[in-house]
Write a structure and sequence with these properties.
- This protein has about 400 residues and is an alpha/beta fold.
- It has two domains: about 140 residues, Aspartate Aminotransferase, domain 1, CATH 3.90.1150.10; about 240 residues, Aspartate Aminotransferase, domain 2 (3-Layer(aba) Sandwich).
- Helix content is about 40%, strand content about 15%.
- A seven-stranded mixed beta sheet has the order 2-10-9-8-5-3-4, with helices on both faces. A five-stranded mixed beta sheet has the order 1-13-14-12-11, covered by helices on one side. It has a two-stranded antiparallel sheet with strand order 6-7.
Length: about 400
Amino acid sequence: MTLSNGRHYLAIPGPSVLPAPVLRAMQRPAPNIYTGALVDLTDSLVPDLKTVAGGADNVAMYICNGHGVWEASLSNIATRGDRVLCLVTGYFGAGWVNVARGLGLDAEVLDFGSQAEIDFDQVEAALRADSSHEFKAVICVHADTSTSGRNDIAGVRKAIDAAAHPALFMVDCIASMGCDPFLMQDWGVDVAITASQKGLMTPAGMGFVFFSDKAKAAQIGELCSPYWDWRVRAEAAALYNYFDGTAPTQHLYALRAALDMMMEEGMAAIWARHDHLARAYWAAFEAWGAGGDLRMHIADPDKRSRAVTALSLPAPLASELRRWMEDTAGVTLGISLGLVPMDDPAWHGYFRVGHMGHINAHMVMGVLGTMDAGFKALGIAHGEGAVSAAAQVMAGS
């Protein structure tokens, strides 16, 4: 017997749950793309996107996913052969490195592992050693979706400043923006990237590059093709300039609805909600782990993303739990990425729970209650009182 009939729930770290106003906004005929309401709507997105990013000087919108804005961001600031210093703490940090190398950049990597934070002293030392200032940029990920670890971006900025290095500071905020506090201007970030399908609560398909006036002034080299050039997009004189062609019409309506929700709630309230709901999840995970083998990948709560939690069980129990949740109960949990190879049997001992964007108390409690049923149905050893522990966190709001 299946209990999954009805609305399915995605508890994965993107694409996130789409709110009803976002879905309704998309359900309309294709609009006029030359004049009128869609032009005004697109112009209205710019200031709100900058607010979400914490005070960006400029924003360029692209029809692409996160991998696209990895390429867009580097293409606008570097020339083939340029050096970049890459601070890696997980699968997606390594992914950005691969894109840099694919573009012909000399990417030097400081790999801190999947459970450690960035060592600011190492960053400062590497930059001080670059006495001729060859590093064009320092790149890192704010919250790596694969590990659920969150980096101290302000701390990295301090390390760059301590070395008195002029490199641009570039941050991947694809998992964190709209979930974890991010203050682009206050933290001295020159380039920040994100995508539509996570904290922005919009279908996958749009990417965003926020950049400072310092980054805008950087020399545009041979890597910058007409499509990736952020100058025309950030200073769009017509709708087609924003996208180097036809606009993603229905996505724009969706994004406008999502931003309306975000502006009404306010960024501080959004960050507080994500923090509170993440702590409810963590309380349950700790309770289950006290009587079994469930473990959170990042031990220190202050180093965890508020958008996703990476977990482990003895293999193959994680995959068995995911299958039971999806097939029997109608809830999809996230697979593991990067912690072990997918063809390694140990891969079946890792999974992730997404808690980003359009999420509230009853969504969290529903996932936890279903997980509790899965532990019992599969005979997975676990501590008791997990759902009650999460409820206690909720009650403490």
